[in-house]
Amino acid sequence: MSTAVSRFPHLRQDFAASLVVFLVALPLCVGVAVASGVPAELGLITGIVGGLVTGLLPGSSLQVSGPAAGLTVLVFEAVDAYGLPALGVIVLAAGLLQLAMGALRLGRWFRAISLSVVEGMLAGIGLVLIAGQLYAAAGLTAPASGTDKILGLPGAVADALGSTEALASLAVGAGTVAVMVLWRRMPGPAGAVPGALAAVLLATAVTLAFGVPVATVEVQGLLDAVQPPGADAFGGLGIGVLGTIVAFTLIASAESLFSAAAVDRLHDGPPTRYNKELMAQGAGNTVCGILGALPLTAVIVRSSANVRAGARTKASRVLHGVWLLLFAALLPSALALIPLPALAGILVHAGWKLIPFRAVATLWRGQRGEALILVVTAVSIVVVNMFEGVLIGLALAVAKTAWEASQAKLEVIDKGAGPLQVYLTGNATFLRLPRILDTLESLPRDRPVELDLTGLHHVDHACLTALRNWSERHSAPGTAPVKLTERPAEEKGLPVTAT
C-alpha cells in the first residue's frame, strides 16, 4: 500500500473525483447520444474512449473528454444525411485530421479564433438544441431544419395540449429541468450528487412508481451498438461529405481547446500543451470512428466538475472511463428504464447554458461590433446550418478586424495663402479608399496641394496607387502639380509599407 501511495500520491483525491465525473458524465453521454439520433450505447462508448484513450495522453491533465452537446446538432444532421454507418467514417477522418494538425503544431492557432464567433457558434447550437429537445420532451417528432424547429413550436404546443400522453411526457421533461436548476441549492450530502444524475433518477422513479406513459431509452447492448464502418460506408460517400468532416474537425477542435483554456484558469497545475491536446483529441476521435461511435471533445461541464472535486492528475479522468465501461458492461439494462423526456430535459438545460446571455449584454455595452458578430453567427447557424454559419461568423470577424485596422485620418489645413496642406495618418487601405478619394477630389483644382503621407504607418498597394494617380491628374492647367511626400522605406521607426 505504501508503494502505491508513493507512486500515486494523489490517488485518493483522483479516485473521489473520478466518481463525481462518472456520475456527471453518465446521463450526459446517454442524453447526447439519444438527441443525436444514435443508439444510447454509442454515447457511453465515446465517454469510455474519452477516459481510456484521450485521458491517458498528454495535453491537458485535468480536462475530461466525451460526447458533447455542442456537436449534437451536427451529428444529427450528418446521420440524417448520410446514415449511421457513415458516422464512423466522418469521425475517423476528423480524428486523423486533428492528428495531422497537432503534428503540424497548429493547435495554438485555434486560440486566435474570435471569441465572439465561438460564443455565437455555441449560442446557435444551444438554440437549435433547445428547440429540437422541446419536441422530444413532448414525445413529438422535430422538423429537420433549425428554422422549422423554432417556427413549428407554436403548432407543437397546440398538439401537446390536445394529448394527455404528450402533456405527461412534457411534465416529466419540465420536472427534470426544474430539479437540475434547484438541485444545487440542496443542503448537506444530497447537494454533492450531480444535478443531472439526480434529475434522471427522480424522473425514472416517478414514471415507474406512477406508471406515467412515456417513452424510454431503447437498449440493444454494448457490443451490438459497436459497428465499425465497412467498405460500403467508405465507398458510399461522395465529395459533399468533406464539408461535414471539416466542420466536425474545426468545431470539435475549437471547443476542446477553448475548454482547455477555461480549465487552466480553474487550477494552478501544469498548463495545457495545445498541440499535444489536439493530438490527444485526434487519437480519441480516430478510435471513436473505428468503433462507429460519436465524436468526442473536451467538455467544460465534466472538466470543471473534475477540478472542483479535487482531481490532481490525469488518473481521475482515466478512472471515470473505467467506471463508464463497468456500467456499460454490467448494467446496460438500467438504461431501458430512463425516460426519454428526462434526457430531453437535460439537453434543454445544457442548451440553455450554451447561450452566453451575459457575454452578449457585456459586449453590447462596450463592443457592439463583437456583439453583432456573436448574434449573426448564432442566427446563421439556426437559419442555414452549422458549417456555413461558422464560416459567416469568421468572415464577419475578419472583415471587422480589417475595417478597424484601417484607421486613416485625413486633415486639410488651409492658411488662406499658399498651398493646401493635406496630412494623411494612420493605416490607409482599400477599405478606407473611397472616403479618402472623396475628400481629395473635393479639393479645388486651381490651388497647389501638398499631400504628406509620412504620418502613415501602413498603406496598401491599392491605396498607394490610387493616391499617386490622384496626385498626377488633380491639378488644373497652369497650377503647380500636387507635391506628394512619402516616407522612405528604409527610414527607421514605422515606415510606409505597400502590400
TrEMBL record:
Bilayer-spanning residue ranges: 15-35, 42-62, 82-104, 116-140, 160-183, 195-217, 237-263, 283-301, 321-350, 371-399
Output the Gene Ontology cellular-component terms: membrane
The Basic and acidic residues compositionally biased stretches are 484-493
Tell me one GO biological process term. Answer: transmembrane transport
Reading the lineage from the top rank, the first entry is: Bacteria
Instruction: Identify the stretch(es) annotated as Disordered.
Output: 474-499
Localisation: Membrane
| InterPro entries (UniProt xref) | SLC26A/SulP_dom (IPR011547), SLC26A/SulP_fam (IPR001902)
Q: How does it sit in the membrane?
A: Multi-pass membrane protein
Q: Please report the stretch or stretches of sequence annotated as the SLC26A/SulP transporter domain.
A: 11-377
Q: What is its main location?
A: membrane
Which keywords does this Swiss-Prot/TrEMBL entry list?
Membrane, Transmembrane, Transmembrane helix
The family database entries (PANTHER family) matched by this protein are listed as: SULFATE TRANSPORTER
Indicate what this protein is called per its UniProt record: Sulfate transporter
Q: Which organism is it from?
A: Streptomyces fungicidicus
